[in-house]
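step=encode ok
step=design start
structure_in=
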């Protein structure tokens, strides 16, 4: 797995050896960035933005954002093996000064309460496919107002997953790639 474009294009991203982490596939990642940059509905500048990468795993989405000029990325992950690889990727890509790693379970903590209001232009969520508490998490994100006014939330799910999103979440676009679906909203 590698960074697909931007300043770090071609740089290697280390992956876990176990099957408990599901890294974002390059095709899906490339499609997300194409939509962000070229869609009339969602067109967004990643350069100089603040990114929140929830359920970040090894960090492939966040590091891709750094490669595209993001100011900084906050990674939130609770699986220790993924965190070690995330740190290794950060060192390998020489971007430790642009990232913050929070190793905590988003459902067992009030970590979102401690994030700055209106701080993030993009919030990316890539929870395990079987995760059922996504609606409540989105409700907290919206209530705490941590997404900037014109920011976007991007969610990676299994294409057959039927999530119950809160009424406050505005779905802008849904795209399906293989077994994945990407939901853009705010």
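sequence_out=
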């Amino acid at each position: 797995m590698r960074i697909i474009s931007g300043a770090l294009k071609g740089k290697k991203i280390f992956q876990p050896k176990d099957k408990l982490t599901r890294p974002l596939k390059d095709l899906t990642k490339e499609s997300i960035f194409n939509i962000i940059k070229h869609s009339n509905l969602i067109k967004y500048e990643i350069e100089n933005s603040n990114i929140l990468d929830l359920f970040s795993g090894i960090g492939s989405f966040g590091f891709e954002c750094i490669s595209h000029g993001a100011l900084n990325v906050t990674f939130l992950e609770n699986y220790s093996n993924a965190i070690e690889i995330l740190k290794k990727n950060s060192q390998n890509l020489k971007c430790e000064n642009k990232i913050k790693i929070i190793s905590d379970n988003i459902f067992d903590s009030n970590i979102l309460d401690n994030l700055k209001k209106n701080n993030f232009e993009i919030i990316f969520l890539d929870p395990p496919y079987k995760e059922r508490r996504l609606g409540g998490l989105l409700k907290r994100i919206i209530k705490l107002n941590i997404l900037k006014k014109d920011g976007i939330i991007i969610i990676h799910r299994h294409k057959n997953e039927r999530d119950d999103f809160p009424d406050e979440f505005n779905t802008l676009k849904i795209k399906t790639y293989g077994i994945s679906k990407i939901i853009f909203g705010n």
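step=design ok
step=annotate ok -> The chain has one domain: 29-185.
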